[in-house]
Design goal:
Layout: E1 6-10, H1 14-26, E2 31-35, H2 38-47, E3 52-56, E4 58-59, E5 62-63, H3 65-73, E6 77-82, H4 85-91, E7 96-99, H5 104-114
Parallel strand pairs: 1-2, 1-3, 3-6, 6-7
Antiparallel strand pairs: 4-5
Length: about 120
């Protein structure tokens, strides 16, 4: 379902980032760029065009919401992942929110919704 899609993965926990990258690849993502910090994500956005993104909301105390809003305004569909219900609740009006820990079916459903794709 993500064939030919270029994705940005913003996740500060290395094991979660590796798992998410594997799951996105299983969904057919053509190219997944990983970033662990807001600065790395901003640099990736400056250097590459993305179709969609998966952002962890809380990056060791820093919020990714401002960057998520910025890239979404530029046409990148953003799925937010959070293990904290209050952060997810605050963002649910503007983004597809995925609760951590997530599974392949839940990740797929989130991207189907974010990209407005009919279930395959």
């Amino acid at each position: 379902m993500l064939e030919s899609k270029k994705l940005l993965l913003l996740e500060d926990e290395p094991i979660i980032a590796m798992l998410a990258e594997d799951l996105l690849s299983m969904l057919g993502a053509a190219d997944v760029r990983r970033a662990a910090t807001l600065a790395e994500a901003e640099q990736c956005c400056d250097q590459h065009a993305f179709d969609a993104a998966l952002f962890d909301v809380d990056l060791q105390g820093d919020s990714s919401l401002m960057l998520a809003e910025q890239v979404q305004q530029e046409g990148v569909r953003v799925v937010l992942a959070s293990g904290y219900s209050h952060l997810a609740r605050d963002a649910a009006d503007n983004f597809v929110v995925l609760a951590k820990p997530f599974t392949l079916p839940k990740l797929k459903a989130a991207f189907l919704e974010a990209l407005d794709i009919a279930d395959e």
